[in-house]
Specification:
With about 250 residues, the chain is an alpha+beta fold. The protein has 2 domains: about 60 residues, Arc Repressor Mutant, subunit A (Orthogonal Bundle), CATH 1.10.10; about 180 residues, GAF domain (Beta-Lactamase), CATH 3.30.450. About 50% of the residues lie in helices and about 20% in strands. It contains 9 helices and 8 strands. It has a 6-stranded antiparallel beta sheet, with helices on both faces. Helix 5 packs antiparallel against helix 9. The longest helix is centred in the last third of the chain and has 26 residues. It is globular, with a radius of gyration of 20 Å.
Length: about 250
């Protein structure tokens, strides 16, 4: 459940940033019209964000700056999972020809921190940093399946059962997660992205803690059940094993 933001002005700042990120470049008049805020408030926040270097004003309007890219990439390079998985993800995308992603759990949601296109991917927008319900994607489901049950309940209390998934209630989801945990991988048949199928496997360290997951997604025509449950699972497990070994050696 959403909790009130203690410092309301911070919430206002990020409401403005999200609007600019989605719509930008955008002119002040158009931005103010989209937000249920006084124009003076929007103007003062924009002026502050410009001075801090997080927003730029161009001939076409306001745009978020690449300072956010610096913040995210700095955070990513301090993550041992990313540093140990990057090369394997690049090889996975090359070998499969599809989109390969590295996903972690953050605040009870899935966060794609690295996505690589293969040589023949369908063109669809996948941004590093994309957030999703853990139960709605193949990699997210493998993470959720390997979390302690009380942690899963806490995630579902906060975020609910995903509307995109095939399960309609918590018990159905728990049953599906048991199957995922037993199988060691999850398949997504068009739940997360219309017309796209995917398969994911977890990354589990030597302490038995799920650190994240890797996945491959592609168009339905190329991602048949036989391929997903056969060659792709094998390729993902091979890469996951290497990543897990590298994590164990560096920790």
């Amino acid at each position: 459940m959403d909790e009130p933001i203690p410092v309301k002005s911070v919430g206002t700042t990020f409401e403005i940033l999200q609007a600019i990120s989605r719509e930008g470049p955008i002119r002040f008049s158009d931005l103010a019209a989209k937000l249920d805020l006084p124009k003076s408030t929007v103007y003062d926040h924009l002026r502050s964000l410009r001075r801090l270097g997080y927003v730029h004003e161009t001939d076409d309007g306001y745009q978020v700056s690449f300072e956010f890219l610096l913040l995210g990439d700095r955070r990513r390079h301090k993550t041992d999972l990313f540093m140990n998985a990057r090369r394997e993800m690049e090889e996975l995308a090359t070998e499969t020809g599809e989109h390969a992603s590295l996903v972690v759990e953050e605040g009870g949601t899935g966060r794609a921190i690295y996505t690589i296109k293969g040589e023949s991917p369908v063109e669809f927008k996948v941004y590093d940093g994309t957030q999703s319900h853990l139960g709605s994607t193949a990699p997210g489901r493998t993470i959720l399946a390997n979390l302690p049950r009380d942690r899963v309940n806490a995630v579902l209390d906060e975020h609910g059962v995903p509307e995109e998934g095939p399960e309609t209630d918590r018990e159905e989801l728990f049953s599906a997660l048991e199957d995922v945990r037993d199988a060691g991988y999850a398949v997504d048949e068009g739940s997360a992205i219309h017309g796209m199928n995917g398969v994911g496997v977890p990354i589990i360290d030597r302490q038995g803690t799920v650190r994240g997951a890797i996945s491959v997604y592609g168009p339905v025509g190329r991602m048949s059940p036989d391929r997903m449950n056969g060659d792709l699972v094998g390729a993902l497990r091979e890469k996951a094993n290497i990543i897990e070994l590298n994590l164990d050696l560096t920790n």
